[in-house]
Predict the structure.
Amino acid sequence: MTVISTNTPTPELQALDAAHHMHPFTHGDGLRDKGARVILRADGCWLTDSDGNRILDAMAGLWCVNIGYGRTELADAAHRQMQELPYYNTFFQTTHVPAIQLAARLAELAPGDLNHVFFASSGSEANDTNLRLVRTYWAEKGQPERQTIIARWNGYHGSSVGSGSLGGMKGMHAQGGMPIPGIAHIDQPNWWTDGGDMTPEEFGLARARALEEKILELGPDTVAAFIAEPVQGAGGVIVAPNSYWPEIQRIVDKYGILLIADEVICGFGRTGNWFGSETLGIRPDIMTIAKGLSSGYQPIGGSIVTDAVAEVINQTEFNHGYTYSGHPVACAVALENLRILRDEQIVERVRTETGPYLAEKFQAMTEHPLVGEAKIVGMMGSLALTPDKATRAAFASEPGTVGLVCRDRCFANNLIMRHVGDRMIISPPLTISRAEIDTLMERAWKSLDEAMAQLEADGLMVAAPKV
Ligand code: PXG
């Protein structure tokens, strides 16, 4: 066995990684040629890589490290729980204290009568649960023909076959026979790219009414649920115009369709409230949770459902569950994370202090010649890059080419800021300070400057013809 440590030289770590480790959403050969970046440790908002670089993580890992890195309280909670009860299942009429406690705490935190939790270990698993939950719900209600779930193109709900089918990522659907039957997609409310001559408000209404059109096309009696992220994350931090969500709520209410809010990114303070549904003013029947639930310190997710949904599901045996549903160590760590979020008033700080500060700085990025619009809710934001702000033009190059140039400049400046197509996105730890926000924005501006110089040199500052 090759023995390695954090002192092993980077090329050796990279070679061994390339030889044996298959990475998610990665072109394996390309990565082998380049070598993966090796992260050794992290503290607060800062990562340290194997070359000694200190990198500002403006993505909170994968949108999940809400309380920041290095909180020993969570390590202590895991240690205590592993000694007391490292594992037991929640099948076979059994339970344990951490699962009871976390379910009860989530019922307190979740809005309205969302009072019942089905645990999973990830957002993908939780959305698979939801798929089966809503179909079982309608079958138990005597309407088994209500099977179809409507979702959105470019939405992201996970990478398992079920959740990947709910998601609207065409690149994923192309590999492995997705979507599964009984899922329909409608267009996303991305005014910047698709709004044409409409005002954002007109466009928001039009995109919400696409849901009603789809329901009528499928037949209202065949539709089980609509699933969406309050703010689309992986699709590029797409914030719907203000007219969108009230109209969606009106439509799901009118047809009696269950609303699933996928809160995997928006939950636990990201939008300045405990849940994105509160920020956007929607009343879901089911919420998907993961990521910020444990700040990523342990894999845990789940579905929170209303009294009305639980009452129907509880009438039958729901033949579903995971070995690690309600894993005691993950629950104990999540509870400690929720305690820190509350005791340190982290959600309030996002809403009233650091969120508005970041929003002001982020909006100022529209003064950069490459940036067409800046959209931000709480601590998730995106910048649309454009060669021509007045016409909201796309670049003539393959979508993502320009975004990748910017992303690479960010990485070179020790800033983790990602691109989705030609949008640049951020989602920093909620604990980021004002000084760190300043550093983030300085590095982002510098990276955009460098990217623009490169784009001009490479002849890429060219607008695509209008379609
Ligand atoms: N729902 C939403 C809204 C998500 O963002 C999932 C479900 C699935 O969660 P799990 O825990 O199964 O990964 C997610 C995950 C990206 C990226 O590139 C985003 C996610 C995962 C991986 C990459 O932005 N979100």
